[in-house]
Design a protein that fits this description.
CATH class: Alpha Beta
Order of helices and strands: HHEHHEHEHEHEEEEEHEE
CATH architecture: 3-Layer(aba) Sandwich
Structural class: alpha/beta
Number of helices: 8
Distance between the termini: 27 Å
CATH topology: Rossmann fold
Largest sheet: 7 strands, mixed
Number of strands: 11
Strand content: 15-25%
Length: 216
């Protein structure tokens, strides 16, 4: 591990509390750490509560800790809710540039005006639109729009992560317990991003409560 101070914090404080996000977030930071240089990260949907590791994942706080020892890194977080961004600014350092804006419009502008020294994003973390599990279409569509808006900055090595994107399937009970009526498919916020990835032949690098892709 290159970023020793981050991993000490992550392993001792964050990982034990991250519940169903712990392994996928570990993968995110292993990816960033393997680059061994300043990194470029964009997150949609900022941290909204202090200390909600299991419930929210505290991704903004984690990214802030990670870039602390990497001068030259660029970290943007965008959220539409001014109360959320105000709280976020109180929980992270000035290393994180927190923006109050519609995420799709913000990403489009950023793609047209990228920071110097970075051709592509290292991590794109999509988590901006709360999902209604009984009607996931608005959230899933919004996250697909985000991916399209920032597409010029998404390169082959960019890790694209969508939060709240577990597998779902139709099941029926039978004499042996249960049987699948349909194959498990990525749902929630990641549904349309997953459909697009499948159509162009990209498989997830991880899939659990969150899903991650490279190769867009």
């Amino acid at each position: 591990m290159n970023n020793t101070s981050f991993w000490e914090f992550f392993n001792a404080i964050a990982y034990p509390q991250l519940a169903h996000r712990k392994d996928s977030l570990k993968h995110v930071f292993e990816h960033l750490d393997s680059l061994n240089r300043a990194v470029f990260i964009v997150e949609t949907g900022c941290v909204r509560n202090a200390g909600t590791w299991a419930g929210e994942g505290q991704s903004t706080v984690l990214f802030d800790h990670f870039v602390a020892s990497l001068p030259g890194s660029v970290m943007h977080s965008v959220d539409l809710d001014p109360q959320a961004t105000a709280l976020c600014r109180s929980l992270v350092s000035e290393r994180v540039q927190v923006h109050t804006s519609d995420s799709v419009a913000f990403l489009r502008t950023l793609a047209a005006n990228p920071p110097q020294g970075f051709e592509h994003l290292d991590v794109l973390y999509l988590d901006s639109y709360d999902v209604d599990w009984s009607a996931p279409h608005p959230s899933a569509l919004h996250h697909m729009k985000e991916l399209l808006a920032i597409a010029p900055l998404v390169g082959p090595g960019t890790l694209v992560v969508v939060d709240d994107a577990p597998l779902e399937a139709m099941l029926i009970p039978n004499n042996d317990g249960i049987a699948f009526v349909s194959s498990p498919q990525i749902s929630g916020k990641g549904k349309y991003v997953a459909d697009y990835a499948q159509n162009i032949g990209i498989k997830p690098v991880f899939s659990g409560y969150q899903v991650g892709y490279k190769g867009f």
